[in-house]
Amino acid sequence: MATFLYRIGRGAFRRRWLVTLLWAVILGTAGVGAATAPAAGDDGTSFMPGIEAQRAFDLIGERFPGSDADGADARIVFIAPDGEKVTAAGHRAAIDAFVATAGDGPQVASAVSPFTANAVSEDASTAYATVTYEVSSGDLTEAGRTALETAVDEARDSGLTVEVGGSALSSQPAAGGAAEAVGVGLAAVVLLITFGSLAAAGLPLLTAVVGVGISMGAILALGSALGLSMTTGTLASMLGLAVGIDYALFVVSRYREERENGHEPREAAGLAVGTAGSAVVFAGLTVVIALAGLSVVGVPMLTKMGLSAAGAVVVGVLVALTLVPALLGMWPNAVLSRKARGRGVAAVRHTDGAGNGGSRWARFVLRRPVAVLLACVAGLGVLALPATDLQLGMPGAEAKPVSTTERRAYDALAEGFGPGFNGPLTVVADVKGASDPEAAATTVADAIRDTDGVVSVSPPRFNAEGDTALFSAVPATAPNDERTKELVQTIRAERGGLEDETGATFEVTGSTAMNIDVAQALQDALVPYLSVIVVLSLLLLMLVFRSVLVPVKAAVGFLLSVLASLGAVVAVFQWGWGAGLLGVEQTGPIMSLMPIFLVGIVFGLAMDYEVFLVSRMREAYVHGERPAQAVVSGFRHSARVVVAAAVIMIAVFSGFVGSGESMIKTIGFGLAVAVLFDAFVVRMVFVPAVLALLGDKAWWLPRRLDRLLPRVDVEGTGLTGRSAPADEGRSAREPVRT
Q: How far apart are CA 400 and CA 408, in angstroms?
């Protein structure tokens, strides 16, 4: 692989104008596609096939044709001024006027007055009207939204406080905003400090922006056809930007090193792509496999997010392998340090002297590996402890900032009608097998009404055939309260006895039950998925490093970093430690999709740093250095760049913590701390300590397994002859095998 990529690097350097033009055309095509494509509709990402809530939801759509269960809705909350009631003549007239105006709006199926639906609180301080639409929120026209907003504004002019919940006017906060720009700015500063050259700092940023532009353009262009939401695109841009900068950073860094080793520009570009590019390909492959593997979990939203982000990573890899050497060909000396340009690159050669900060740190760890290893494991273990209390859920309006009308509507309804009112359970009873369908439905409704934790149950509503009844049950607790989950389980546990008694069966759905079922399914899938990822890492790293113990060490380090990052997420977003500093206004269960998504991404990023750092160690070992010296050499060449890459990723991910979207905020924080733990604790402390204790055994591979595994040459040993200026006087050797 190294030889093949070496030729690609030299070819891109030689045909730099053609390569650059091709990427410009691709970027322009993606931009035109994004500008002309229709807006993406509702992607239906809240649902998960196979769970009870989804089966009940599908049954409602089948037995109650014409009632679009996916239709948009708006719950308009009216709050009277202090000391007044919504039933006062003036307020009542304003509410009736709103219902009449809203009911005449485009695409409206119905508008129900609070005074006819018994939707007035006991103290008459709060009431709500329900507006339902014939289409989903994604298909709601601008005219439909404007008509509702106009009616709401008129009601506010009457002196009532009016807040809007539901999906019809649901706000979509910016994913990163200014904070994302700050992250990119910090990345630029880190690159400038690392390279000491504006050109060297700007090139990774430029190529990463090109890659993200292409990826986002493709996602927007295909959004309507494939149902890709804004959240999907945001996560793809997050990862695409981070890995795009990192991958270009490693290629540019290796190019500078080869130039300083005496190679002419085109040869240096070929060697950089053949060596660092090999690591980029494999590191990118691990990220892609981890992200694409999310599709096996069975959650459509997770599948789309994973595949879109994987596509962005693929683009980042291709850009690093082709566009980066092409741009290096245009300015072959601009990316070099001022010292190298001033003295002449041929005069600047690496030496094996005292080394830099990376080698000094490696020697520090090698002198006391046991103490350092114990401190590392103990520290990450303590950070991982909160993960044992992980609770999953799907935060809704209660997780939005109080500046949004949805959050204020949620709070007003909870105060006026009880916390469970924001998450009613929908029960669908199949009474086909009952001798008396109406009596059977009534018996089911009465049994659920008598269940502890249920505040009220609506009268059963039958379909036209009379074989299915639908009613709602309001819990006494909030949607994400653990007691609500227990209530759903209790109601479902009563099903067997009621079926024997009535001949009817029922299932529980609604947004609350759907979120509970999704959370449980994902929690059940977390350990198996984590196991698959660990096994995959063992196989991939065994292939790359031709070692048994190095992959085991990498898998253990990955588990430490991912568990510590999950612990940090639980401590902040569930326990509330430091939540105010991050703008988290409501703590509670962690987003159901987040842990599995975090595991997949952290696996890819952890393998990135493992490949970039340890491949230089193996390269030194294969070329004749003793195990301890090989660790020092690997740190001397790679530690500074790995640290810079990690700081860049932390800066980019931290930018998304400023998002108003709770899922993006949580994932941004989780990824930032995961990179912090993995790069600065696991790779910089755990890895050298373990390798110091293992010695030659770290690179041991059974002879039979050595013959079976294909050789991928990530460290570029096939280019040894071409890199003679850097390797004079060294003897090559193969790893110890038995």
A: 9
Task: Please give the Cα distance from 533 to 605 (Å, whole number).
Answer: 13
pTM of the model: 0.78
* Best CA proximity match to 686, nearest among 634, 610, 624, 633: 610
Handedness of CA 558, 274, 688, 626 (dihedral sign): positive
List own/partner pairs for 335-341 with CB under 8 A and 24 or more apart: 335/195, 335/197, 335/199, 335/200, 335/203, 335/252, 335/255, 335/256, 336/197, 336/200, 336/256, 336/259, 336/260, 337/195, 337/196, 337/197, 337/200, 337/256, 338/196, 338/197, 340/256, 340/259, 340/260
Tokens for 108? 């409206």
Do the Cβ atoms of 473 and 427 come closer than 8 Å?
A: yes
**Burial 526-561, CB ≥16 within 10 A → b, else e:** beebbeebbebbbebbbebbbbbbbbbbbbebbbbb
If you compute the radius of gyration of the chain from its CA atoms, what whole number of angstroms results? 30
Say if strands 108-112 and 454-457 run parallel, antiparallel, or are unpaired.
Answer: unpaired
Residue that has been written with the tokens 């900060």 in this structure: 357
Ramachandran sector of residue 37 (left: φ over 0; alpha: ψ -120 to 50; beta: rest): beta
pLDDT in tens, 321-364: 999 999 999 989 888 877 766 655 544 444 444 568 889 999 99
Question: Within a 10 A sphere around the Cβ of 567, how many other Cβ atoms?
Answer: 23
Q: CA 6, CA 271: separation in Å to the nearest integer?
A: 6
Continuous segment of H or E residues that includes residue 649: helix 627-655
Q: Supply the DSSP symbol for 78.
A: E
Confidence of residue 727 (pLDDT cuts 50, 70, 90): very low
Copy the structure tokens of residue 314.
């693929």
Mean pLDDT of the chain: 85
- Rounded Cα gap, residues 652 and 245, in angstroms: 10
pLDDT digits (tens, 9 = 90+) for 484-522: 999 999 999 999 999 999 999 999 999 899 989 988 888
* DSSP 8-state secondary structure symbol assigned to residue 130: E
